[in-house]
Design goal:
2 domains, 12 helices, globular, MetI-like fold, about 75% helix, mainly alpha
């Protein structure tokens, strides 16, 4: 197991190098970062020339990439091209906000999705199965931005009509409460519901399909023939083996949610890493955008490694070493 994890970690190095290089090249060709500085009347041509030289904007993109890599390891992602401030404090602050949002939404989505998938598989072709199937397809097909705007408009109308504040529709807090204060949870409720509904259909459908495949296996019929209670057969034999594809989907979905969180955080004006990325991309702040892309790339690779390790725990037939 340890050797497998080490091999997987070594495999991720060329993946991260290649993805970071391609991202840097594409972002660099998206526009000239100095255009924003040139539009600022406070910067003279001499100052602008000095800043271009300081941030290596006057050099080829390949050379700039290696300067950026040097800043990543020596200066924690370097400094912003626009503000001149260190990037890491903003990345770490906004990432923790997004992590809280994704943790809450994914926990609810996985718990509810597994429950719906188990029920639909055990009660196949029942009225409840048809209902949850329709609900899952609708939730999976809903555009993230449309669902976020719908929930936002709904609770704005509730407040304007009855003057009852149930959930907030923008921001993270009203008076700077703690990370798990009631005020913070009221601000996060609608974004969490948005991401939860989008992911719920995915988990429930994969759980249902995987469980139906496992329920027809020989070892499940053998367990039932031994007189093992049905609930133990479902939870101990069927669900454990059915979770393998669900783990893969969950690992990939968390990385995908960082993309979905961009839309959700923008609609609800959350101070998350997605909202930070949108603002920095609009300013063509190259190093700040690359900081976001690097963090998300590392997270996706790490989650895939975790998913691979979980295979060995869920299915003893998988020999990772």
């Amino acid at each position: 197991m340890i050797l497998y994890v080490l091999r997987r970690c070594l495999y991720t190095i060329p993946v991260l190098v290649l993805s970071s290089f391609l991202s840097f090249v594409f972002v660099s060709f998206a526009g000239d970062p100095s255009a924003t500085l040139r539009a600022n009347p406070r910067f003279s041509l001499t100052t602008l020339h000095h800043l271009r030289h300081q941030y290596h904007l006057d050099q080829p993109v390949v050379i700039r990439y290696f300067h950026w890599v040097h800043d990543v390891f020596t200066q924690k992602l370097g400094d912003s091209l626009i503000t001149g401030q260190p990037i890491w404090p903003d990345i770490s602050r906004t990432f923790l906000h997004t992590l809280q949002l994704i943790t809450l939404s994914e926990t609810l989505a996985i718990a509810i999705g597994l429950a719906i998938g188990i029920y639909s598989a055990v009660r196949q072709y029942s009225a409840g199965d048809y209902f949850f199937t329709a609900f899952s397809f609708v939730g999976f097909a809903l555009p993230t931005f449309w669902l976020a705007l719908l929930l936002q408009t709904l609770f704005v109308d509730v407040y304007l009509k009855w003057h009852v504040r149930i959930f907030y529709t923008s921001g993270l807090s009203s008076h700077g409460g703690g990370a798990w204060s009631l005020d913070r949870l009221q601000h996060l409720a609608l974004p969490v519901v948005t991401l939860c509904i989008i992911s719920l259909g995915l988990y429930s459908r994969f759980t249902r399909a995987s469980m139906l495949d496992v329920m027809s296996a020989d070892y499940v019929r053998t367990a039932r023939g031994k007189g093992i209670p049905e609930w133990r057969v479902i939870l101990g034999h069927v669900l454990r083996n059915a979770l393998i594809p669900v783990v893969t989907v969950a690992a990939l979905n968390v990385g995908g949610l960082l993309g979905g969180a961009i839309v959700t955080e923008t609609v609800f004006s959350l101070d998350g890493i997605g909202f930070y990325f949108v603002n920095k991309l609009g300013q063509l702040d190259l190093y700040a955008v690359m900081g976001y892309l690097l963090v998300t790339s590392v997270l996706v690779v790490a989650l895939n490694l975790v998913a691979d390790v979980l295979y060995g725990w869920l299915d003893p037939r998988v020999r990772l070493d």
